[in-house]
Specification:
Number of strands: 2
Radius of gyration: 27 Å
Largest sheet: 2 strands, antiparallel
Strand order of the largest sheet: 1-2
Shape: elongated
Helix content: 55-70%
Distance between the termini: 82 Å
Amino acid sequence: MPTTEVQASSTPSDAYAPSPRGHGEPGRIDLSRIAQDLQIRKVQVESVVQLLDEGNTIPFITRYRKERTGGLNEDILRIVQERVHLLRQLAERKQTILRSIDNQGKLTPELRAAIRAADNPRRLEDLYLPYKPKKRSLATAARDKARLPGNPGWPPVWRTLSLRGYFLVRHHLKA
Protein backbone atom coordinates (compact mmCIF):
# COMPACT_ATOMS: atom_id res chain seq x y z
CA MET A 1 0.00 0.00 0.00
CA PRO A 2 1.38 3.40 -0.84
CA THR A 3 1.77 5.84 1.99
CA THR A 4 1.58 9.59 2.02
CA GLU A 5 3.91 11.58 4.21
CA VAL A 6 2.05 13.55 6.84
CA GLN A 7 3.77 15.11 9.80
CA ALA A 8 2.92 14.17 13.34
CA SER A 9 1.60 17.05 15.40
CA SER A 10 2.81 17.96 18.85
CA THR A 11 -0.47 18.80 20.57
CA PRO A 12 -4.13 18.00 19.93
CA SER A 13 -5.01 21.68 19.46
CA ASP A 14 -2.65 22.06 16.52
CA ALA A 15 -3.33 18.58 15.16
CA TYR A 16 -3.90 19.90 11.66
CA ALA A 17 -1.46 22.80 11.61
CA PRO A 18 1.84 22.21 9.86
CA SER A 19 4.54 21.44 12.39
CA PRO A 20 8.29 21.65 11.99
CA ARG A 21 10.00 18.33 11.53
CA GLY A 22 11.89 16.97 14.48
CA HIS A 23 14.94 14.80 14.22
CA GLY A 24 14.45 11.30 12.85
CA GLU A 25 12.21 10.42 9.99
CA PRO A 26 8.77 12.00 9.70
CA GLY A 27 5.65 10.08 10.58
CA ARG A 28 3.98 8.28 7.70
CA ILE A 29 0.32 7.50 7.67
CA ASP A 30 -1.61 5.38 5.24
CA LEU A 31 -4.36 7.50 3.73
CA SER A 32 -5.39 4.74 1.32
CA ARG A 33 -6.49 2.63 4.31
CA ILE A 34 -8.77 5.45 5.48
CA ALA A 35 -10.15 5.79 1.96
CA GLN A 36 -10.79 2.07 1.70
CA ASP A 37 -12.51 1.90 5.10
CA LEU A 38 -14.81 4.82 4.24
CA GLN A 39 -15.30 3.68 0.63
CA ILE A 40 -14.14 6.96 -0.87
CA ARG A 41 -11.26 7.80 -3.21
CA LYS A 42 -7.77 8.35 -1.82
CA VAL A 43 -7.62 11.70 -3.63
CA GLN A 44 -10.58 12.87 -1.57
CA VAL A 45 -8.86 11.91 1.68
CA GLU A 46 -5.65 13.65 0.58
CA SER A 47 -7.53 16.85 -0.26
CA VAL A 48 -9.41 16.79 3.08
CA VAL A 49 -6.11 16.37 4.96
CA GLN A 50 -4.55 19.20 2.96
CA LEU A 51 -7.50 21.52 3.63
CA LEU A 52 -7.44 20.70 7.34
CA ASP A 53 -3.67 21.27 7.45
CA GLU A 54 -4.24 24.70 5.92
CA GLY A 55 -6.42 25.55 8.91
CA ASN A 56 -9.86 25.25 7.31
CA THR A 57 -12.79 24.14 9.46
CA ILE A 58 -15.09 21.27 8.59
CA PRO A 59 -18.16 23.49 8.02
CA PHE A 60 -16.08 25.73 5.70
CA ILE A 61 -14.79 22.74 3.75
CA THR A 62 -18.30 21.28 3.47
CA ARG A 63 -19.84 24.52 2.18
CA TYR A 64 -17.11 26.13 0.12
CA ARG A 65 -14.66 23.39 -0.92
CA LYS A 66 -17.03 20.75 -2.27
CA GLU A 67 -15.17 20.69 -5.58
CA ARG A 68 -11.92 19.65 -3.85
CA THR A 69 -13.47 16.98 -1.61
CA GLY A 70 -15.87 15.53 -4.15
CA GLY A 71 -18.89 16.63 -2.15
CA LEU A 72 -18.15 14.73 1.06
CA ASN A 73 -20.53 15.48 3.92
CA GLU A 74 -19.57 16.70 7.40
CA ASP A 75 -19.82 13.25 8.98
CA ILE A 76 -17.27 11.75 6.60
CA LEU A 77 -15.00 14.80 7.02
CA ARG A 78 -15.08 14.41 10.81
CA ILE A 79 -14.28 10.71 10.55
CA VAL A 80 -11.31 11.49 8.27
CA GLN A 81 -10.19 14.22 10.70
CA GLU A 82 -10.34 11.86 13.68
CA ARG A 83 -8.58 8.99 11.87
CA VAL A 84 -5.78 11.26 10.67
CA HIS A 85 -5.41 12.66 14.19
CA LEU A 86 -5.12 9.14 15.67
CA LEU A 87 -2.65 8.04 13.02
CA ARG A 88 -0.52 11.14 13.64
CA GLN A 89 -0.51 10.43 17.37
CA LEU A 90 0.54 6.84 16.67
CA ALA A 91 3.37 8.02 14.38
CA GLU A 92 4.54 10.48 17.03
CA ARG A 93 4.49 7.80 19.74
CA LYS A 94 6.48 5.46 17.48
CA GLN A 95 9.19 8.12 17.14
CA THR A 96 9.26 8.69 20.91
CA ILE A 97 9.58 4.98 21.61
CA LEU A 98 12.29 4.52 19.00
CA ARG A 99 14.31 7.39 20.52
CA SER A 100 13.87 6.00 24.04
CA ILE A 101 15.01 2.48 23.15
CA ASP A 102 17.85 3.85 21.01
CA ASN A 103 19.07 5.99 23.94
CA GLN A 104 19.18 2.82 26.06
CA GLY A 105 21.31 1.16 23.37
CA LYS A 106 18.89 -1.75 22.98
CA LEU A 107 17.37 -0.97 19.57
CA THR A 108 17.83 -3.81 17.07
CA PRO A 109 16.85 -3.72 13.39
CA GLU A 110 14.12 -6.31 14.05
CA LEU A 111 12.66 -4.27 16.91
CA ARG A 112 12.79 -1.11 14.79
CA ALA A 113 10.90 -2.88 11.99
CA ALA A 114 8.32 -4.28 14.43
CA ILE A 115 7.72 -0.83 15.99
CA ARG A 116 7.34 0.80 12.58
CA ALA A 117 4.91 -1.95 11.49
CA ALA A 118 2.70 -1.59 14.60
CA ASP A 119 -0.73 -0.49 13.45
CA ASN A 120 -2.42 0.23 16.79
CA PRO A 121 -1.38 1.78 20.11
CA ARG A 122 -1.85 -1.43 22.10
CA ARG A 123 0.58 -3.38 19.90
CA LEU A 124 3.06 -0.50 20.07
CA GLU A 125 2.94 -0.34 23.88
CA ASP A 126 3.28 -4.13 24.10
CA LEU A 127 6.49 -3.91 22.09
CA TYR A 128 7.77 -1.08 24.29
CA LEU A 129 6.91 -2.66 27.66
CA PRO A 130 10.17 -4.64 28.18
CA TYR A 131 12.22 -1.51 27.41
CA LYS A 132 10.14 0.99 29.35
CA PRO A 133 12.15 2.62 32.14
CA LYS A 134 10.95 1.48 35.55
CA LYS A 135 9.73 4.04 38.06
CA ARG A 136 11.84 4.20 41.19
CA SER A 137 10.15 4.51 44.55
CA LEU A 138 11.74 6.06 47.60
CA ALA A 139 12.04 2.59 49.16
CA THR A 140 13.95 1.30 46.11
CA ALA A 141 16.33 4.24 46.26
CA ALA A 142 16.91 3.64 50.00
CA ARG A 143 17.61 -0.07 49.42
CA ASP A 144 20.06 0.78 46.67
CA LYS A 145 21.84 3.23 48.96
CA ALA A 146 22.09 0.58 51.68
CA ARG A 147 23.76 -1.81 49.21
CA LEU A 148 26.54 0.58 48.28
CA PRO A 149 30.05 -0.82 48.99
CA GLY A 150 30.88 1.79 51.63
CA ASN A 151 27.61 1.32 53.53
CA PRO A 152 27.02 -2.19 54.88
CA GLY A 153 23.59 -1.28 56.31
CA TRP A 154 22.06 -3.66 58.85
CA PRO A 155 23.96 -6.81 59.73
CA PRO A 156 23.01 -9.59 57.27
CA VAL A 157 21.12 -11.65 59.86
CA TRP A 158 18.86 -8.76 60.78
CA ARG A 159 17.91 -7.96 57.18
CA THR A 160 15.57 -10.93 57.04
CA LEU A 161 13.88 -10.24 60.35
CA SER A 162 10.74 -8.23 60.80
CA LEU A 163 10.85 -5.17 63.01
CA ARG A 164 9.36 -7.15 65.91
CA GLY A 165 11.93 -9.88 65.42
CA TYR A 166 14.68 -7.29 65.35
CA PHE A 167 13.69 -5.99 68.80
CA LEU A 168 13.41 -9.53 70.20
CA VAL A 169 16.91 -10.42 68.99
CA ARG A 170 18.30 -7.13 70.24
CA HIS A 171 16.69 -7.72 73.65
CA HIS A 172 18.23 -11.21 73.91
CA LEU A 173 21.64 -9.95 72.83
CA LYS A 174 21.65 -7.32 75.58
CA ALA A 175 20.65 -9.79 78.29
